[in-house]
C-alpha cells in the first residue's frame, strides 16, 4: 500500500542518518560531538537549513565542521530524526539517570526531565523552522501538564507565553490558578504580569463558584469520590488483588476504562494481573487514553515488554490503532528498532535488550499481518458480492 511505501521510505532515510558518514556531505559539531548529515534532506525538510546552506557560511565550498551552539546534542539528534523520518519520540528513555530527575528508576513520563526535554525540543523546532515538530511537541506538553508538578506547569506556562501558544497558555494558567499557591510564591517563578493574570482568573473562578452555589460543591464531592475509587483500585492492582477490583466494578460502578485501569496495570503490574484484569471482561483492550490516545498496546510497545505485548494480543489488542499523532504500536517498535542502531552514539538506548525488541516487533508485525489479510479477504468478498448483484445473480 502507499502507506507502507511511505513508511519504508521513512526508514530508508532514517538509516542514512544512522549510518553516519555514509554519503554524508555535512558535519555538525554539537557539545563537542560530531553529527554527519545530508544537505539535500535537511534543506528539503527545513526552511532554516535551506537558507543556511544557500549562504556563504553554509555552502559546501566553506568546508569544515559547522558548530551548533543553540541546542544540545540530544535535542539536535531528535530534530534530525524527525527531519529524516517524520517520526520522533520526545521522551527520555525509561530508568535512565538524568541530571534533573532525582527519582531512581523513574519512567520519565511526567517528571521534570521529561518536561525539560519537551520544552528544549519545542524551542529547537521553532529555531529550525520545523512547524510540524512544534505542533507535535505542543500536543505532548498539553497531555503532560495535567500530571506534572506545579513547578513544571509554571515552566510550560512561561514557554507557552514566549512561543505564543494560546491553548497551552490557557491550560497551564488555569492549573496554576487552581494550585492555591499565594501570589508571593508565584512571583518567585513567574513575571509580575503573569501573576496578575493568575489572580484575575482566581477572582473570576471565585465569583463563578459563588453563583453556582451548592451544585458546585456537590460536583466537587463527586469528583473526590471518583478519585478515591481510582486510588483504591490502583492500590488493589499493586497488591495483585484483582478480586477487589471486580467487586468495585460490580458494587461501586467503577469504570475500568475511564479510570485507565488496564493502562496502569500494563505499566506497573505483572503479566498475571493484566491477564486477570482482561478476563473480567470489563475493560476495553483498545481503549485510547487521554489527548494523545495511547492504547495499552502502545504502552507495552514503548516498554519493549514481550510478555505484556503477548497477553494483550491474545485478548484481541489491535496493533493498527493510531494515536492522535497517527502512531501505531507497530510504528513505535519499528522506530525503536531503528533507534537501537544509534546505541554506539546515543547512550540512553543501551538499556534496550535486542532480543526483547525483536520478539515484540515479530509479535506485533504478525498480528498486523493477520488483520491486513482479514481485511483484504473481507474486501474481496464484498467485491465479489457486488459483481453478483450487478450481474443479477442472486
TrEMBL record:
ANK repeats, residue ranges: 292-324
The organism's place on the tree of life at top rank: Eukaryota
Cellular component terms (Gene Ontology): cytoplasm; nucleus
Cross-referenced Pfam families: Ank_2, BTB, DUF3420
BTB domain residues: 24-92
Occurrences of domain C2HC NPR-type (ranges): 98-112
InterPro entries with a match to the protein in the record: Ankyrin_rpt (IPR002110), Ankyrin_rpt-contain_sf (IPR036770), BTB/POZ_dom (IPR000210), NPR5/6 (IPR044284), NPR_central_dom (IPR024228), SKP1/BTB/POZ_sf (IPR011333), Znf_C2HC_NPR-type (IPR057250)
Keywords carried by this UniProt record: ANK repeat, Cytoplasm, Metal-binding, Nucleus, Repeat, Ubl conjugation pathway, Zinc, Zinc-finger
Intracellular or extracellular location(s): Cytoplasm; Nucleus
CDD domains recorded: BTB_POZ_NPR_plant
A molecular function (GO) term: zinc ion binding
This protein's record includes keyword Nucleus: yes
Main location: cytoplasm
Keyword DNA damage part of the UniProt annotation: no
PROSITE patterns: ANK_REP_REGION, ANK_REPEAT, BTB, ZF_C2HC_NPR
One of the protein's GO biological processes: regulation of DNA-templated transcription
Pathway the protein takes part in: Protein modification; protein ubiquitination
SMART domains: ANK (SM00248), BTB (SM00225)
Similarity comment: family membership: Belongs to the plant 'ANKYRIN-BTB/POZ' family. 'NOOT-BOP-COCH-like' (NBCL) subfamily.
Protein name per UniProt: Uncharacterized protein
Species for this entry: Genlisea aurea
Amino acid at each position: 500500500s502507499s502507506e507502507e511505501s511511505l513508511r519504508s521510505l521513512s526508514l530508508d532515510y532514517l538509516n542514512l542518518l544512522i549510518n553516519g558518514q555514509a554519503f554524508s556531505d555535512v558535519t555538525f559539531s554539537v557539545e563537542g560531538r560530531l553529527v554527519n548529515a545530508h544537505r539535500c534532506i535537511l534543506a528539503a525538510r527545513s526552511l532554516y537549513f535551506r537558507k543556511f546552506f544557500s549562504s556563504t557560511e553554509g555552502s559546501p565550498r566553506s568546508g569544515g565542521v559547522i558548530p551548533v551552539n543553540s541546542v544540545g546534542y540530544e535535542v539536535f539528534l531528535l530534530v534530525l530524526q524527525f527531519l529524516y523520518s517524520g517520526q520522533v519520540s520526545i521522551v527520555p528513555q525509561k530508568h535512565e539517570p538524568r541530571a534533573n530527575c532525582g527519582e531512581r528508576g523513574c519512567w520519565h513520563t511526567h517528571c521534570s526531565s521529561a518536561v525539560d526535554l519537551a520544552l528544549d525540543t519545542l524551542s529547537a523546532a521553532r529555531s529550525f523552522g520545523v512547524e510540524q515538530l512544534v505542533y507535535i511537541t505542543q500536543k505532548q506538553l498539553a497531555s503532560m501538564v495535567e500530571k506534572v508538578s506545579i513547578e513544571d506547569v509554571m515552566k510550560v506556562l512561561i514557554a507557552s507565553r514566549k512561543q505564543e501558544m494560546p491553548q497551552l497558555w490557557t491550560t497551564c494558567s488555569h492549573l496554576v490558578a487552581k494550585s492555591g499557591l499565594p501570589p508571593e510564591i508565584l512571583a518567585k517563578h513567574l513575571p509580575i504580569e503573569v501573576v496578575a493574570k493568575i489572580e484575575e482568573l482566581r477572582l473570576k473562578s471565585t465569583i463563578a463558584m459563588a453563583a453556582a452555589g451548592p451544585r458546585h460543591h456537590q460536583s466537587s464531592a463527586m469528583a473526590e469520590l471518583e478519585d478515591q475509587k481510582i486510588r483504591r483500585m490502583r492500590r488493589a492492582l499493586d497488591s495483585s488483588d484483582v478480586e477487589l477490583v471486580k467487586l468495585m466494578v460490580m458494587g461501586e460502578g467503577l469504570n475500568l476504562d475511564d479510570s485507565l485501569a488496564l493502562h496502569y496495570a500494563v505499566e506497573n503490574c505483572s503479566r498475571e494481573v493484566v491477564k486477570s484484569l482482561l478476563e473480567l471482561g470489563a475493560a476495553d483492550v483498545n481503549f485510547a487514553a487521554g489527548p494523545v490516545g495511547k492504547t495499552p498496546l502502545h504502552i507495552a510497545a514503548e516498554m519493549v515488554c514481550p510478555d505484556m505485548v503477548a497477553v494483550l494480543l491474545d485478548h484481541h489488542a489491535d496493533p493498527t490503532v493510531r494515536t492522535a499523532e497517527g502512531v501505531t504500536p507497530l510504528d513505535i517498535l519499528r522506530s525503536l528498532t531503528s533507534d537501537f542502531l544509534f546505541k554506539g552514539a546515543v547512550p540512553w538506548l543501551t538499556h534496550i535488550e535486542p532480543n526483547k525488541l525483536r520478539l515484540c516487533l515479530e509479535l506485533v508485525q504478525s498480528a498486523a499481518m493477520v488483520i491486513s489479510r482479514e481485511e483484504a479477504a473481507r474486501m474481496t468478498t464484498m467485491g465479489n458480492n457486488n459483481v453478483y448483484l450487478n450481474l443479477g445473480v442472486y
